Amino acid sequence: MNILGISAFYHDSAAALVRDGELVAAVQEERFTRRKHDERFPINAIRYCLQAGDVRDGPDAVVYYDKPLTTFVRLLRTYLQVGPAGFRSFREAMPLWMNRKLWIPYLIERGLGELGYRMPRDLYLTEHHESHAASAFFPSPFASAAVLTFDGVGEWATSSIGVGEGNRIRIDRQMLFPHSLGLLYSAFTSYCGFRVNSGEYKLMGLAPYGEPRYVDHILDELMDLREDGSFRMNMRYFGYVGGMTMTNRRFDGLFGGPPRLPESEITRREMDLARSIQVVTEEIVLRMARHAAATTGQRDACLAGGVALNCVANGRLLREGPFARIWVQPAAGDAGGAVGAALYGWHQIAGGTREPDGVTDGMSGAYLGPEFSGEEIGRYLRHHGYAHEEVPDPDRWAHRIAELLAEGRVVGLFVGRMEFGPRALGHRSILGDPRSPSMQSIMNLKIKYRESFRPFAPSVLAERASEWFDLDVESPYMMLVAGIREERRTGDDAAHGEDLRTWVNEVRSEIPAVTHVDHSARVQTVSRERNPEFHAVISAFEDLTGCPVLINTSFNVRGEPIVCTPEDAYRCFMRTEMDHLVLGSHLLDKSDQPSWTEDRRWQEDHVLD
Ligand SMILES: [Fe+2]
Question: How far is the CA of 11 from the centre of ligand 1 (A)?
C-alpha cells in the first residue's frame, strides 16, 4: 500500500511516500525549483517520491497535512473580530485562498494527472498538529511516548500535548491562536531585523552573546504564563492578528525604539532580546514538558513543529527536563508535515502495524531524497569535460579527502541520497578543519557569503562524541546543542567589547571553528552503520590529526536551497572559493577546472538575501 503525504502553500512544501508503513522517500520542493522555502504545490517532489517508490498507476491514498477550510474559518473570524483595521491583510491573503488553498483536492488530482498518475479514491486531510504529532511519534524508536508539538499556527492550534502508543496517537490538549510560542519567537525575530520563518536560527545563534535582561518585561507585559506552560499573550503589543506586522508601536515602546533594520549593525539590544526570548522559550518548553510528563505518565517524549528546531531548547529539555529520552523529528517544520500525514494515513487511518525496537528510528538518517549513481556522475563530468579523478577504493577515497581537509582545504561532499529537512548531514555538506582558528571566517566569507556571528556545526564520530562534548546520547540529526567538554576549552572569558566582530574570531577550544561563545555546539553524531562514507572520512581525519570532528555546513550559499543534483553541486563549487568537490567516488580540484564565466552579480544577489 502506497500512501502519499503532501504539505504545501505555507512554507517549505514537501512530499513523502510511505509504503506498507515504511517511509521510502521524502523531499522538499525547493530542492528541485531552487527557490528557498518554496511554498508552491510540490509537483516535483511528488514526481520524485512516486518514481523513487516505483509506484505504477498512482498512490493508494493521499493525505494532506492540514485542513484548509478550518484555517479559512479562523481567518474570517479573526478579520471579523478586528474589523476594518484588518482589511488590507485580508485583501492580500484572499487570492491565495480563492485560487489555491480551498481547492486542495482538485489541485492534487490535477497534479497527479499531469504526472500521468490516477487520483486514488481515498484523500484525507489531517489537522496540522496531528501531522506534526504523527511526524514526531510514528518514526520515533519508542513504543509509547508523550508527544509535544509547537509551531506558529496550524488551523487554530499553536501547540499540543498528546500521547503516542503503538500505532495510535491521541492529542489531549491544545493551545489556540493567537497565543503561540512560534509566533512569539517570530515576533522577536522580526523585531531584531531577521526574516520570519528563516531568521529564527539567527536569533537563536545570537542569544549566547546577550544578557537576559528583558525576561521580566516579556513575562510581565507580553504574556501571562501559567505553571503548565500554557499562556495568553497580551495582543495589544502584537500586529499579526489582522495586521501587516508582527509587532507594533507599543512593542517598540517597551523595548526602546523601532525594530532593527535588516542588514544594519547588530547592537547590544538585539543580543539581549535574543537571549531573553530564548530564556523564555526554554522556560515554556520545560513547563509544558513537566506538565506533559505528569499528565501522560510517559517516560519518553517526541517533539515536532517549527519550535522543535530550537536545538538549544531541546538540549536543555534533555538535560533538565522530566523525560528519560527525547526524539525530535529532524524535519520538525512544515516540510515534515508531509511525512506525518503519510504515516498518519498508514497507522491511524489504515490501522497499519508499527513495531519499534526502542533504538532505531524510521527516518533512515533523513537520507530520503534523490541520489545519483557513479555512472550518472561520470557521464555528467565527461559530457562537460570537467577534470576529475576517480578513486573507487573506499579507504583511499576517505584518506584522500581527509588529507585535503587536514591541509586546510574546504571540500564539498556529495554522496548518496539527499537529506530531508533543514540540515545537511554528510550527504550534501561542505566540510572543513574545525581546529583552524581562521576557518570560521574563511568559510563564512569565501564559501557561504555571509558575515556571520554563528559558528559552524561539528560532525563527530558517534563513538568519540562524549570525549569531545557533554553528550551521552546520539544526535544523528543535529537537533541537540551540547557543551564542549571542559578539558577541551581554552582561553579565558574576559570582558567583551560591544562589537560582535571582536568576539567571532576568539579561540575558545581545541575546535574553535565549531565552538560558540558560550562553549556550546550543535552536534551531529555520525555512526558507521547509518552513514559509512561520512564516518570513513571523519575516521581518516582522526587518523591523520587525532581529531574525530569536522566542520559540517550545508552545501549551498546563503539564500539558496541545499544542492540536489551533481550539476547544482558543481555550480555551487565553481561560484564559491571551495577548493575541492567530491561527487561520489569522483574528486575534483578547483585549480584543474575550466574557467567559470558568470556575472559576479549572482554572488551579490545572494549576499543581500
Ligand atoms: Fe506547522
Answer: 9
